[in-house]
Design goal:
The chain is built from eight helices and 16 strands. It has helices spanning 144-173, 189-202, 212-229, 239-246, 256-271, 279-294, 300-303, 317-349; strands at residues 2-4, 8-9, 17-22, 26-28, 32-41, 46-48, 50-52, 55-57, 60-73, 78-88, 93-97, 101-104, 107-110, 114-119, 177-183, 306-312. Mean pLDDT is 82; it is low at 1-13.
Length: 350
Amino acid sequence: MAIWLIPVFVSGQSNVIVQATVDSMMMWVGQQTSLHLEVTCDPDQQVVFPNFRDTIVTGLEVVPPVLTDTIWLNDGKRMSVTRHYTVTCFDSALIYIAPIPVKVNGQEHVSNRLALAFMTYEIPQGEEKNIFGPKDNMRTPVQFREIWLPVLLYILSMFAVVGAIFLFRRYKDDKPIIRHIKVEPKVPAHKRALDGMEELRKSGLTSADDPKEYYTRLTDLLREYINERFSFNATEMTSDEILEHLRESRDKDSLKELANLLSTSDLVKFAKFKPLIGENDRNLIGAVEFVKETMVEVPEDELMPKEETVVVEKRSKGARTVLLTFTLTVTVVAAILLGIALYKLYFVIF
């Protein structure tokens, strides 16, 4: 039974040609062939094909899908619209197809006639028992290229689930953030001073024309050492104040070389005094000797790296909101990845 479809618009009004063709006119029972119903018309005409639901004629069954193609001809002056039907028959028969009606602009036009022959197999006598019915569908082995993507998505979804659980627990606990910081031991004051004086000796400033920079660096090293070793702010004191503080813990004779060095430094920096040849080296040696005589060895356990625990305040409301949002996002991503993975695996396996 034919039912008219929704119209397919094409161009034209005259010279309508309707032609029906088949790919093969003789087939074995159960084989399929294509029936093509072609309408050629002008550009502004309306074509309506019949809709064959199950059969075209008795015994000739329609196998979905039914497709339609449209082709422009003569630079758009003509149009060819073709409806393609896949047909088959399960009985041996000669099937006659009457002219098929097609409506163009409401007017009916018919195609040419067709005939199809479906033949059966001749079974030799005595071979009837060797004819078997259709077998069940066979499953082909699952190949790696079919499952690698869903397996990868499944693994990623598991990582996302673990991440979501971790983030949710962090949000729920709301514990203070604890950080363990590795603190390197502080270099002893005498070592810093001696290393700095060695670099100063190698710099060549002892023989420079202007000794101001040399004495500035040398006294800065001494002031920093005294500041840490004797626990008073030597960096902010004058030379006389430094010597006065040092005399409280040391005798006057042991400070003679240091006093001479500080005095020479003040003359160089503030009075543009130029020391005698070899005096710069002698003052450097005096500074080194002063550090070595007064230095205190640091115990080995204090030189080992230490770890400090720093407790940061609990998260703010804004930080908790961001953490919860991120947790929900990761959860949704995990659910989507898991759903896609299971969907693909289901169709591959089953």
